């Protein structure tokens, strides 16, 4: 009991436990209220771990029962992207293949869907996954269930393949005549026959995938940069009582992911305990919870020549949500060469400006920042940018610290997208990492898979107008056999799969 009381800091507000049966499920009569607000984050954090583990135990009993009768058949269960309640990294070892249900809305940023695909691929660190569910037309549970415009279903299907899917499947085959999903899309509509736009598009996609299957199946993605994602850190950060209701772990991860996406630079999503040895750059947005072993990995990675980037609200607490005393960012303080004295939190309408005082790479000028503002001091780190406003004007907001053969960056506030674009351009150029395409029209996504020495470039036009992309050499379109030299045209909502030609 002493260890538990220490981990949960139960002495605060007289929560000390003396018997195990005094511990109850967090609820409105104990620690936790509506909307996830809690008076004891340690208890609520461990409860989320417990629930994820219990659901996993139930799944594994089902897994074993199935394997008893069909030992050679793969077993999976369909995940739901960034769903909050289950730690998918803990589940992944017990799935023969990862699968998930992709249901973006009409206004979901393409980068957000791409990030979630990469997260699913990252659960088994690069193993292809299954697109278990998508609708061929519309959903039924969103406020406005828009139809997928002509070509969008095909394009979104290829987006999944581009990011590691080896299957493209639909829910559902036929629209139900009743109950809650009767208006959820299907390959066969309520009309009951094949003479529909949705059926024609589904059949045409099936014919294309049949042609591509042997070529692309088991191909992998490759990236020299990675973003860390951890469900436990998300739980801990978002359960925090303060400093701001604007804390949103997934959106902070997405902000950094989008900076890679918009520049056509591949990036993997991995867990802090997975293998980082193949990466030159590791980004850890809002790494609120830092275990001592993770900090050692960061130091080792950076000392050996890696570039490490982390942000405000990082290194604050340990795995029990007890604050690392001695100054934030706790065990990351040495590698970052800084310490944080205070954290200011302002409503979204209030902003500050990060003015670059030490131009590095693409970082220059001034950038808007908001939400949280770390007031930090350098302990050897170079000050790249400072706040321009408020009583902490002149204090560092972007720092870079040389550590061994590598460098560690700290971003002390939520930065506008241009700042992250310029930061990612700077650190990737420093590692000689080039985009997949030299240039593309706005709205064009580029992704790559490789197999047996062959490179396959996916170009997806998410805009509603024709687009173009420049190419690094000559490619052959796998669906049309067209030979493309240094240039590619795309129709609106188009997807093209190109094989790199090695003979110029």
From TrEMBL:
<protein>
    <recommendedName>
        <fullName>beta-galactosidase</fullName>
        <ecNumber>3.2.1.23</ecNumber>
    </recommendedName>
</protein>
<dbReference type="Pfam" id="PF02449">
    <property type="entry name" value="Glyco_hydro_42"/>
</dbReference>
<dbReference type="InterPro" id="IPR029062">
    <property type="entry name" value="Class_I_gatase-like"/>
</dbReference>
<dbReference type="GO" id="GO:0009341">
    <property type="term" value="C:beta-galactosidase complex"/>
</dbReference>
<dbReference type="InterPro" id="IPR013738">
    <property type="entry name" value="Beta_galactosidase_Trimer"/>
</dbReference>
<dbReference type="Pfam" id="PF08532">
    <property type="entry name" value="Glyco_hydro_42M"/>
</dbReference>
<keyword id="KW-0378">Hydrolase</keyword>
<dbReference type="InterPro" id="IPR017853">
    <property type="entry name" value="GH"/>
</dbReference>
<feature type="domain" description="Glycoside hydrolase family 42 N-terminal">
    <location>
        <begin position="2"/>
        <end position="212"/>
    </location>
</feature>
<dbReference type="InterPro" id="IPR013739">
    <property type="entry name" value="Beta_galactosidase_C"/>
</dbReference>
<dbReference type="InterPro" id="IPR003476">
    <property type="entry name" value="Glyco_hydro_42"/>
</dbReference>
<feature type="domain" description="Beta-galactosidase C-terminal">
    <location>
        <begin position="443"/>
        <end position="500"/>
    </location>
</feature>
<dbReference type="InterPro" id="IPR013780">
    <property type="entry name" value="Glyco_hydro_b"/>
</dbReference>
<feature type="domain" description="Beta-galactosidase trimerisation">
    <location>
        <begin position="223"/>
        <end position="433"/>
    </location>
</feature>
<dbReference type="GO" id="GO:0006012">
    <property type="term" value="P:galactose metabolic process"/>
</dbReference>
<comment type="similarity">
    <text>Belongs to the glycosyl hydrolase 42 family.</text>
</comment>
<dbReference type="GO" id="GO:0004565">
    <property type="term" value="F:beta-galactosidase activity"/>
</dbReference>
<dbReference type="InterPro" id="IPR013529">
    <property type="entry name" value="Glyco_hydro_42_N"/>
</dbReference>
<keyword id="KW-0326">Glycosidase</keyword>
<dbReference type="Pfam" id="PF08533">
    <property type="entry name" value="Glyco_hydro_42C"/>
</dbReference>
């Amino acid at each position: 009991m002493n260890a538990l009381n220490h981990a949960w800091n139960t002495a605060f507000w007289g929560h000390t436990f003396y018997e195990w049966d005094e511990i109850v499920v967090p609820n409105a009569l104990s620690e936790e209220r509506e909307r996830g607000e809690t008076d004891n984050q340690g208890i609520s954090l461990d409860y989320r771990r417990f629930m994820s583990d219990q659901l996993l135990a139930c799944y594994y009993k089902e897994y074993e029962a199935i394997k008893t009768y069909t030992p050679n058949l793969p077993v999976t269960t369909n995940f739901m992207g960034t769903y909050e309640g289950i730690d998918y990294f803990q589940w992944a070892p017990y799935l023969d293949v990862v699968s998930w249900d992709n249901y973006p809305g009409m206004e979901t940023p393409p980068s957000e869907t791409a990030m979630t695909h990469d997260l699913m691929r990252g659960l088994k660190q690069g193993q292809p996954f299954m697109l278990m569910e998508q609708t061929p037309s519309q959903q039924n549970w969103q406020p406005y269930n828009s139809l997928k415009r002509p070509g969008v279903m095909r394009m979104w299907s290829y987006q999944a393949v581009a990011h590691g899917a080896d299957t493209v499947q639909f829910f559902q085959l036929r629209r139900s005549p009743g109950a809650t999903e009767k208006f959820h899309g299907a390959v066969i509509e309520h009309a009951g026959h094949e003479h529909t736009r949705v059926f024609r598009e589904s059949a045409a996609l099936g014919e294309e995938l049949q042609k591509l299957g042997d070529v692309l199946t088991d191909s992998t993605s490759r990236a020299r940069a990675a973003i860390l994602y951890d469900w436990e850190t998300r739980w801990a950060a978002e359960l925090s009582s303060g400093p701001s209701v604007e804390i949103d772990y997934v959106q902070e991860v997405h902000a950094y992911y989008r900076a890679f996406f918009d520049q056509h630079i591949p990036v993997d999503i991995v867990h802090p305990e997975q293998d980082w040895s193949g990466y030159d750059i590791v980004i850890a947005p809002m790494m609120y919870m830092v275990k001592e072993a993770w900090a050692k990995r960061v130091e080792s990675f950076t000392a050996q020549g890696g570039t490490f980037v982390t942000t405000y609200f990082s290194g604050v607490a340990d795995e029990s949500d007890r604050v690392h005393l001695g100054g934030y960012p706790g065990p990351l303080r040495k590698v970052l060469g800084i310490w944080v004295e205070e954290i200011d939190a302002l409503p979204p309408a209030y902003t500050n400006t990060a003015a670059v005082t030490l131009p590095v790479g693409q970082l220059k000028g001034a950038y808007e920042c908001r939400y949280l503002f770390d007031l930090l001091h350098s302990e050897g780190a170079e000050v790249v940018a400072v706040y321009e406003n408020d009583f902490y004007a002149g204090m560092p907001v972007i720092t870079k610290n040389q550590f061994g053969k590598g460098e560690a960056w700290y971003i002390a506030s939520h930065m506008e997208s241009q700042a992250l674009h310029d930061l990612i351009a700077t650190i990737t150029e420093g590692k000689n990492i080039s985009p997949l395409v030299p240039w593309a029209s706005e709205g064009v996504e580029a992704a790559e898979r490789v197999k047996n020495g062959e490179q396959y470039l996916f170009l997806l036009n998410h805009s509603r107008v024709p687009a173009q992309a420049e190419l690094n050499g000559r490619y052959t379109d796998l669906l049309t056999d067209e030979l493309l030299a240094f240039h590619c045209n795309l129709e609106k909502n188009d997807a093209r799969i190109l094989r790199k030609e090695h003979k110029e």
